[in-house]
Design a protein that fits this description.
Radius of gyration: 60 Å
Helix content: over 70%
Number of strands: 0
Number of helices: 2
Distance between the termini: 196 Å
Order of helices and strands: HH
Shape: rod-shaped
Low-confidence stretches: none
Strand content: under 5%
Protein backbone atom coordinates (compact mmCIF):
# COMPACT_ATOMS: atom_id res chain seq x y z
CA UNK A 1 0.00 0.00 0.00
CA UNK A 2 2.73 2.27 0.67
CA UNK A 3 3.68 1.98 -2.97
CA UNK A 4 0.21 2.66 -4.18
CA UNK A 5 -0.09 5.87 -2.13
CA UNK A 6 3.15 7.36 -3.43
CA UNK A 7 2.53 6.69 -7.09
CA UNK A 8 1.66 9.58 -9.36
CA UNK A 9 -1.48 9.24 -11.25
CA UNK A 10 -1.94 11.15 -14.44
CA UNK A 11 -5.46 12.17 -14.91
CA UNK A 12 -6.29 14.40 -17.85
CA UNK A 13 -7.65 17.68 -16.66
CA UNK A 14 -7.59 21.34 -17.75
CA UNK A 15 -3.89 21.78 -17.05
CA UNK A 16 -3.03 19.39 -19.86
CA UNK A 17 -4.72 21.67 -22.36
CA UNK A 18 -2.98 24.65 -20.82
CA UNK A 19 0.39 22.91 -21.19
CA UNK A 20 -0.34 22.03 -24.79
CA UNK A 21 -1.35 25.61 -25.46
CA UNK A 22 1.85 26.91 -23.82
CA UNK A 23 4.00 24.51 -25.89
CA UNK A 24 2.23 25.66 -29.08
CA UNK A 25 2.79 29.33 -28.14
CA UNK A 26 6.46 28.62 -27.34
CA UNK A 27 6.94 26.84 -30.69
CA UNK A 28 5.27 29.77 -32.50
CA UNK A 29 7.39 32.36 -30.64
CA UNK A 30 10.60 30.34 -31.16
CA UNK A 31 9.84 29.94 -34.84
CA UNK A 32 9.30 33.69 -35.20
CA UNK A 33 12.19 34.88 -33.10
CA UNK A 34 14.92 32.26 -33.32
CA UNK A 35 14.33 29.52 -35.88
CA UNK A 36 13.04 31.65 -38.77
CA UNK A 37 16.10 33.97 -38.85
CA UNK A 38 18.42 30.97 -38.51
CA UNK A 39 16.63 29.20 -41.37
CA UNK A 40 16.82 32.36 -43.48
CA UNK A 41 20.56 32.67 -42.78
CA UNK A 42 21.04 29.00 -43.65
CA UNK A 43 19.00 29.39 -46.86
CA UNK A 44 21.02 32.49 -47.81
CA UNK A 45 24.27 30.61 -47.19
CA UNK A 46 23.00 27.73 -49.30
CA UNK A 47 22.18 30.17 -52.12
CA UNK A 48 25.64 31.75 -51.86
CA UNK A 49 27.34 28.37 -51.80
CA UNK A 50 25.37 27.11 -54.79
CA UNK A 51 25.99 30.41 -56.62
CA UNK A 52 29.70 30.25 -55.92
CA UNK A 53 29.75 26.60 -56.90
CA UNK A 54 28.11 27.44 -60.22
CA UNK A 55 30.55 30.30 -60.67
CA UNK A 56 33.48 27.99 -59.92
CA UNK A 57 32.15 25.42 -62.39
CA UNK A 58 31.78 28.15 -65.02
CA UNK A 59 35.34 29.33 -64.36
CA UNK A 60 36.60 25.76 -64.57
CA UNK A 61 34.79 25.23 -67.87
CA UNK A 62 36.13 28.54 -69.18
CA UNK A 63 39.68 27.70 -68.14
CA UNK A 64 39.32 24.26 -69.74
CA UNK A 65 38.16 25.90 -72.97
CA UNK A 66 41.03 28.37 -72.85
CA UNK A 67 43.49 25.53 -72.24
CA UNK A 68 42.02 23.61 -75.18
CA UNK A 69 42.33 26.67 -77.45
CA UNK A 70 45.88 27.29 -76.19
CA UNK A 71 46.91 23.71 -76.94
CA UNK A 72 45.29 23.92 -80.38
CA UNK A 73 47.06 27.19 -81.15
CA UNK A 74 50.33 25.76 -79.87
CA UNK A 75 49.93 22.70 -82.11
CA UNK A 76 49.20 24.93 -85.11
CA UNK A 77 52.19 27.15 -84.34
CA UNK A 78 54.47 24.12 -84.05
CA UNK A 79 53.16 22.71 -87.32
CA UNK A 80 53.69 26.08 -89.01
CA UNK A 81 57.19 26.26 -87.55
CA UNK A 82 57.97 22.80 -88.87
CA UNK A 83 56.59 23.76 -92.29
CA UNK A 84 58.74 26.90 -92.37
CA UNK A 85 61.77 24.93 -91.21
CA UNK A 86 61.21 22.32 -93.91
CA UNK A 87 60.71 25.04 -96.52
CA UNK A 88 63.94 26.78 -95.49
CA UNK A 89 65.79 23.46 -95.45
CA UNK A 90 64.53 22.63 -98.94
CA UNK A 91 65.52 26.10 -100.19
CA UNK A 92 68.98 25.77 -98.65
CA UNK A 93 69.40 22.30 -100.15
CA UNK A 94 68.34 23.59 -103.58
CA UNK A 95 70.75 26.53 -103.26
CA UNK A 96 73.55 24.16 -102.26
CA UNK A 97 72.83 21.89 -105.22
CA UNK A 98 72.84 24.89 -107.59
CA UNK A 99 76.18 26.07 -106.19
CA UNK A 100 77.68 22.59 -106.48
CA UNK A 101 76.43 22.32 -110.07
CA UNK A 102 77.79 25.78 -110.90
CA UNK A 103 81.21 25.03 -109.40
CA UNK A 104 81.34 21.65 -111.16
CA UNK A 105 80.61 23.37 -114.46
CA UNK A 106 83.26 25.98 -113.74
CA UNK A 107 85.73 23.30 -112.75
CA UNK A 108 85.00 21.21 -115.84
CA UNK A 109 85.41 24.33 -118.02
CA UNK A 110 88.70 25.12 -116.31
CA UNK A 111 89.92 21.53 -116.65
CA UNK A 112 88.87 21.44 -120.31
CA UNK A 113 90.65 24.75 -120.94
CA UNK A 114 93.81 23.51 -119.25
CA UNK A 115 93.65 20.21 -121.16
CA UNK A 116 93.29 22.19 -124.39
CA UNK A 117 96.17 24.45 -123.38
CA UNK A 118 98.29 21.40 -122.57
CA UNK A 119 97.38 19.86 -125.93
CA UNK A 120 98.40 23.06 -127.74
CA UNK A 121 101.67 23.17 -125.82
CA UNK A 122 102.25 19.54 -126.72
CA UNK A 123 101.63 20.33 -130.39
CA UNK A 124 104.03 23.27 -130.28
CA UNK A 125 106.67 21.26 -128.48
CA UNK A 126 106.18 18.38 -130.94
CA UNK A 127 106.45 20.73 -133.90
CA UNK A 128 109.53 22.33 -132.37
CA UNK A 129 111.05 18.93 -131.61
CA UNK A 130 110.36 17.77 -135.15
CA UNK A 131 111.99 20.89 -136.58
CA UNK A 132 114.92 20.46 -134.22
CA UNK A 133 115.09 16.75 -135.07
CA UNK A 134 115.27 17.63 -138.76
CA UNK A 135 117.94 20.23 -138.18
CA UNK A 136 119.89 17.93 -135.84
CA UNK A 137 119.47 15.11 -138.39
CA UNK A 138 120.78 17.41 -141.13
CA UNK A 139 123.63 18.48 -138.91
CA UNK A 140 124.49 14.90 -138.03
CA UNK A 141 124.29 13.79 -141.66
CA UNK A 142 126.41 16.68 -142.85
CA UNK A 143 129.02 15.99 -140.21
CA UNK A 144 129.04 12.27 -140.97
CA UNK A 145 129.20 12.78 -144.72
CA UNK A 146 131.97 15.41 -144.56
CA UNK A 147 134.25 13.20 -142.79
Amino acid sequence: MFLAETSIQLVPDGTLLLHLLMVAVMVFILNRTLLKPINEILAEREKQISGRLKQAEALAAESEEKLRRYNGTLREARAEGYRLLEKERAAALKDKEEKVRFYREELSKTVAAQIEQTRQQEERVRAELESQAVSVGDLISSQILRR
